[in-house]
């Protein structure tokens, strides 16, 4: 039976690289709770990466899951920007690569995995390096021979690193992937070496889901012509899958490969049965690739039964579903089309596919598994086209490849074709030699086939024998039961009437007692429910009255508070107007300046009460908006400040009114001093205003300028103005720390703790 498309498609379905490994034992909610409790940056980074990886490993490709994964990856990257630990940076890049590959963003994924590998090269982290090597391997295709070789190299290197790290489970997975890749390449001996190692490691770790390994071992045995071994492993894979209650697409793969083995053994009916079971699973999952792959079995059966028209019809339907087949599928399609057209005696149509196969063969390595498909179809075509020299040449190539990869069945059929070509060319000694080789190898395969048949019959015998033993035990139990029934029949008959009467009387009495008891309980329950309902109704009425009163009091309280703020603001405005009026009658510059500064202070406090009056929250002041409006007011009051630039950097801070008033006055004094004294007339400058958290609930208020600073020899603490004294007093009120320094202009800094409202 033709195995190429069938085997490779199911490798993609069940084995490479999407075959899910065991999920982490810790669930995402548990990790998230641990993250919330973590107090260190290192712990937060580690848990954020673990959560991101858990989201990436979730089945399917949910956009929501991927968004969550990227969110936690960004969080880990941001935290690591402070710690700068190379291992966490490499781990982040590794997980970014996995996430990008899941989303189909291969360019971004490759860049991330290359970066992770470069970082880990300088570190001694074998487990992390192994993960990166495995992920790098996933970016290479099995359909391109050069990429397949690189993929194998990466998986082999990863297995070594996992072994150094002592991670047996991941080492087994890496060996399994390596063996599967060798299987794709047609290198069966290397594949068996790694798969047997995988089986040993899996058993060492106590894993029970070994059906995938058994299935691959059986497939390779069948490919090498050892159908007995192939059938044994296939049945073992099926038994293990049933014990594990595996009904996934992997079971579809196992059944389909068993169908191939049984077909090669000549058991066509059972081969069809297993193929139909496999197709049923593929249809259940609506997996187009699996459906097409299983359908190829029927094409091979049609060709063997000399029904090329049916085979061609089914093949054309499959071709219509393949929009852009990869190279291995093109080989399978072309070789089977040649077989169909040759059997239909339409050699001109078959010839159309020969040049493409010759080109494909020339671009592949000499001992590639796919060459056996190409050479076999070309030999068939050239013999029917009576081009016997070409047929003999490809027979020689086919024999060399089959010997190299151990494909005995293909080698036997090739010797028969070679015999026909040599006979047609008149090369009778070679024809006789090749016919002898065919008979020897065919007899060997016949013995292997019979051994496989015996193995299958032995398995069937074991099942039948087990069923017979169970049936015999059941018969013995039934016989003993019947004898006991006969012995007790008389006694039961004598007691039957009495027991029925007694039982009936007791049951009737119990029913009466239960009925009366239920009636009493129901009556008492109804009374209690009625009393409760009345109590609840009265409580609801009382509660509703209290709620109405409370809401009214709250409305009155809010109105009164707003009215107080409004009146305070109006009173401050009146005071400011009085100060302005008083200033009109003064001619002393110091007095005018003092009144002006007092007016600015009143304006700062008035602005706070205006904010409270207009805000829905009458306890807190939004310092971002307040600061900007205060600076805007100062600009309007002083005028002509176009040459000054205010660099404002205020955090989203909301202060209680008890702190907002002193902070606003400090801001007013510091800004007024900077505007008046920092810069000579018309000189450009910058005034910096910031209010930021330095740690939790600890704020730093800073007003600085880029001016010329204090005069030479000026001591701000001994010669300070009233504004400086006011700032010191207000800082004490905030229970903060005041720092005034010159670098290069003047900087006023007040550090204080934020009060909670």
Brief summary:
The chain has 28 helices and 7 strands. The protein has helices spanning 4-14, 28-37, 41-57, 63-83, 86-103, 106-121, 126-138, 145-165, 168-185, 188-205, 211-223, 227-243, 249-264, 268-285, 288-304, 308-321, 327-343, 347-351, 354-362, 370-384, 388-405, 408-425, 428-584, 589-614, 623-638, 657-677, 716-719, 722-733, and strands spanning 620-622, 644-650, 654-656, 685-695, 698-705, 737-742, 746-753.
The largest pleated sheet is described as:
5 strands, mixed
Query: Which superfamily, in CATH terms, is the homologous superfamily of the domain at 586-753?
Result: Histidine kinase-like ATPase, C-terminal domain
Q: Compute the number of helices.
A: 28
Structural class: alpha+beta
Query: What is the C-level CATH assignment of the domain at 586-753?
Result: Alpha Beta
Shape: flat
- CATH fold description of the domain at 586-753: Heat Shock Protein 90
* N→C terminal distance: 81 Å
- Care to count the β-strands? 7
Mean pLDDT: 80
Helix share bin: over 70%
The share of residues in extended strands comes to: 5-15%
- Spatially, the strands of the biggest sheet line up as 2-4-5-7-6
If classified by CATH, what would the architecture of the domain at 586-753 be? Answer: 2-Layer Sandwich
| Radius of gyration computed on alpha carbons | 44 Å
pLDDT under 50 segments (min length 5)? 1-25, 457-468
């Amino acid at each position: 039976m033709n195995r190429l498309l069938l085997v490779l498609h199911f490798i993609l379905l069940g084995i490479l690289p999407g075959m899910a490994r065991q999920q982490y034992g810790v669930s995402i909610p548990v990790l998230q709770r641990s993250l919330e409790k973590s107090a260190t940056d290192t712990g937060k980074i580690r848990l954020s990466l673990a959560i991101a990886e858990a989201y990436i490993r979730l089945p399917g490709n949910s956009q929501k899951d991927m968004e969550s994964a990227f969110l936690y990856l960004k969080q880990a990257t941001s935290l690591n920007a402070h710690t700068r630990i190379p291992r966490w940076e490499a781990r982040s890049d590794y997980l970014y690569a996995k996430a990008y590959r899941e989303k189909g963003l291969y360019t971004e994924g490759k860049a991330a995995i290359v970066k992770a590998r470069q970082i880990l090269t300088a570190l001694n982290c074998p487990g992390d390096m192994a993960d990166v090597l495995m992920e790098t391997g996933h970016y290479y295709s099995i359909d391109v021979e050069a990429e397949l070789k690189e993929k194998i190299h990466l998986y082999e290197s990863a297995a070594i690193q996992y072994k150094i790290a002592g991670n047996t489970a991941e080492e087994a997975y890496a060996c399994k992937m390596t063996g599967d890749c060798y299987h794709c390449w047609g290198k069966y001996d290397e594949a068996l070496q790694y798969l047997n190692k995988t089986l040993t490691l899996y058993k060492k770790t106590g894993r029970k889901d070994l059906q995938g390994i058994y299935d691959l071992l059986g497939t390779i045995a069948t490919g090498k012509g050892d159908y007995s071994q192939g059938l044994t492993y296939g049945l073992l894979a099926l038994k293990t899958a049933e014990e594990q209650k595996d009904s996934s697409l992997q079971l579809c793969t196992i059944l389909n490969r068993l169908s191939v083995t049984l077909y090669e053994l000549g058991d066509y009916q059972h081969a069809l049965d297993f193929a139909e079971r496999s197709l049923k699973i593929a249809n259940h999952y609506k997996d187009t690739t699996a459906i097409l792959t299983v359908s190829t079995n029927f094409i091979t059966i049609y060709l063997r039964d000399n029904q090329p028209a049916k085979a061609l019809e089914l093949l054309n339907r499959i071709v219509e579903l393949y929009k852009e087949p990869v190279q291995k599928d093109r080989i399978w399609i072309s070789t089977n089309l040649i077989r169909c057209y040759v059997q239909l005696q339409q050699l001109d149509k078959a010839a159309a596919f020969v040049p493409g196969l010759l080109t494909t063969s020339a671009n592949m390595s000499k001992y590639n598994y796919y060459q056996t498909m190409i050479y076999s179809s070309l030999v068939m075509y050239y013999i029917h086209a009576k081009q016997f020299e070409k047929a003999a040449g490809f027979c020689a190539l086919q024999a060399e490849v089959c010997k190299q990869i151990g494909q005995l069945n293909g080698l036997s059929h090739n010797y028969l074709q070679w015999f026909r070509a040599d006979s047609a060319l008149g090369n009778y000694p070679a024809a006789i030699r090749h016919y002898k080789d065919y008979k020897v190898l065919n007899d060997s395969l016949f013995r292997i086939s019979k051994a496989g048949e015996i193995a299958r019959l032995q398995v069937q015998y074991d099942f039948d024998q087990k069923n017979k033993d169970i049936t015999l035990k059941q018969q013995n139990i039934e016989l003993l039961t019947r004898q006991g029934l006969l012995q007790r029949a008389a006694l039961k008959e004598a007691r039957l009437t009495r027991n029925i009467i007694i039982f009936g009387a007791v049951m009737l009495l119990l029913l009466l007692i239960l009925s009366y008891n239920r009636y009493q309980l129901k009556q008492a329950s109804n009374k209690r429910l009625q009393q409760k309902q009345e109590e609840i109704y009265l409580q609801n009425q009382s509660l509703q009255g209290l709620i109405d009163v409370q809401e009214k009091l709250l409305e009155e309280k809010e109105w009164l508070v707003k009215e107080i703020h409004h009146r305070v603001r109006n009173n401050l405005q009146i005071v400011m107007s009085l100060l302005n009026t008083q200033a009109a009658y003064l001619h002393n510059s110091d007095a005018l300046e003092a009144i002006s500064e007092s007016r600015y202070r009143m304006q700062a406090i008035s602005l706070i009460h205006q904010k409270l009056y207009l805000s829905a929250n009458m306890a807190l002041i939004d310092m971002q908006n307040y600061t900007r409006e205060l600076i805007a007011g100062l600009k309007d009051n002083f005028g002509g400040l176009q040459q000054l630039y205010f660099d404002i950097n205020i955090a989203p801070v909301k202060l209680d009114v008890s702190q907002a008033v002193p902070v606003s006055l400090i801001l007013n004094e510091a800004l007024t001093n900077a505007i008046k004294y920092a810069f000579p007339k018309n000189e450009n400058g910058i005034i910096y205003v910031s209010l930021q958290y330095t740690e939790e609930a600890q704020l730093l208020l800073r007003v600085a300028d880029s001016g010329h600073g204090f005069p030479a020899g000026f001591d701000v603490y001994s010669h300070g103005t009233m504004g400086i004294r006011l700032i010191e007093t207000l800082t004490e009120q905030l229970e903060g720390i005041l720092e005034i320094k010159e670098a290069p202009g003047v900087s006023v800094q007040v550090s204080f703790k934020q009060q909670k409202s």
